[in-house]
Amino acid sequence: MKIAVLSDVHANLHALQAVLAEVGAGGFDELWCLGDVVGYGPRPNECAALLHERATVCLAGNHDLVVLGKIPMTAFADDAAAAAVWTQRALDDDARTFLEGLEPAATVPGAELFHGSPRDPVWDYVLSDDAARQSFAATSQPLVLVGHSHVALELSSDGAQIHGGKADAGMQLDLGGVRRLLNPGSVGQPRDGDPRASWLEIVKAEIDNERARATFRRTVYPVELTQAELRGQGLPEILAERLAHGV
Ligand code: ZN
Question: From 3.20.20.140, 3.40.50.150, 3.60.21.10, 3.90.180.10, which CATH number describes the 2-244 domain?
């Protein structure tokens, strides 16, 4: 079975289309999305429609929940808030209905999925050994998948120590025999200095982590098209600028 794990699409349609083209060509069986379908980016309705159609599991992220009004707008700083207000106005009924049905956590055979972390599936970032240790302690499946930080990450636990760190493009991991916490990075707004869309490929025998393998993937997309759309909608310039640098 081949699974594509995407997160933090953030209404960046051109990044999502480029990743979905590779997913389609690669014969993937499932697509899991770890949340933040919308927010920041200029094409929320199209991204929601594509994920509604293609994702076998899709979580809600903090941006989705703010746009829906389930979390107060005051949770956000200026640029995120400006984009969320714009997205609230732009969102169509189909996209709103799709997002309304999403939760920030899910469990599938062999894996637990969270937008943030097991400690707080909406807001918490797994960026420290301590957060990782508590995340492993709060879960029981061999594989834990999180998004939210927009940084591709691979951590493992041998029960006492946390190993690993940032995951480079092309990195491959054997998932057998050890508990792993993986972050696929962000499709629509990477923040690790690499502007390419970031996602994760998992290949495994049916519900058998002993013979599973993960590969961190990066996909080139036409950043300038998303930048032009952001500027065309009058969204904050910093949101366009950062996409060129992956920050
Ligand atoms: Zn995000």
Answer: 3.60.21.10
